[in-house]
Amino acid sequence: TTTTTTTTTTTTTTTTTTTTTTTTTTTTTTTTTTTTTADCDDCNCKIWMNPDGDSSKQILKSPGFPSKYPNKANCIWDIKTSKGSKITLSFKSFNIEWSSGCKTKDYVYVTPVAKYTKLYLCGAKLPSSFKLTSKSNRLIVKFVTDKSGKKNGFKAVLEAK
């Protein structure tokens, strides 16, 4: 009698690989602060513009722009730059209540400007090429509204050169 014994050995090898990925994100925030000399209470401002610096361009807006401006507003912006320099004013948006002569309802008054000395503006829009240049290194912009009728007002760019 022959007896055969078979022994089977099974070896199971389990390999576990763990990969850990670490991602580091670095965010750098740079804040640039531009200081412009301006003494304002929303619409009554004294603005100094440096033609050779960061303040060579300024945005000027009627109160509430682009929403409707308030009634009975009386705003004066007194803008100055270096002697020998001039200030240009160009309107990017303009919608002021119209009146004949632009003096009885709402208006924008600009003085002293080349060609006109003083100028009253009102109405729904101005030509895109319309640009005013100061006679000297000072420009006064006045915005006056009466007790009724509201429009969107204006947005203008001032540039000292």
Could you list some keywords that capture this structure?
single chain; 161 residues; mainly beta; six-stranded mixed beta sheet; four-stranded antiparallel beta sheet; 0% helix; 38% strand; disordered N terminus
Please describe what this structure looks like.
- With 161 residues, the protein is mainly β.
- Helices cover 0% and strands 38% of the residues.
- The chain has no helices and ten strands.
- A six-stranded mixed beta sheet has the order 1-2-4-9-6-7, with no helix packed on it. It has a four-stranded antiparallel beta sheet with strand order 3-10-5-8, with no helix packed on it.
- β1 and β2 form a beta hairpin.
- It is globular.
- It starts with 37 loop residues before the first strand and ends with a strand.
- The relative contact order is 0.26.
- The model is unreliable at 1-37 (pLDDT under 50).
Q: Give the helix proportion (percent range).
A: under 10%
Question: How large is the radius of gyration?
Answer: 34 Å
Number of helices, where a helix is a run of at least 4 consecutive DSSP H or I residues:
0
Order of strands in the sheet with the most strands? Answer: 1-2-4-9-6-7
> What fraction of residues sit in β-strands?
35-45%
Shape: globular
Provide the residue-averaged pLDDT: 82
Q: What is the H/E order?
A: EEEEEEEEEE
Structural class call reads mainly beta
Profile the largest sheet: 6 strands, mixed
In whole angstroms, how far apart are the ends?
Answer: 119 Å
The parts where pLDDT drops under 50 for at least 5 residues are 1-37
Oligomer classification: single chain
Write down how many β-strands occur, each being a DSSP E stretch of 2 or more residues. Answer: 10
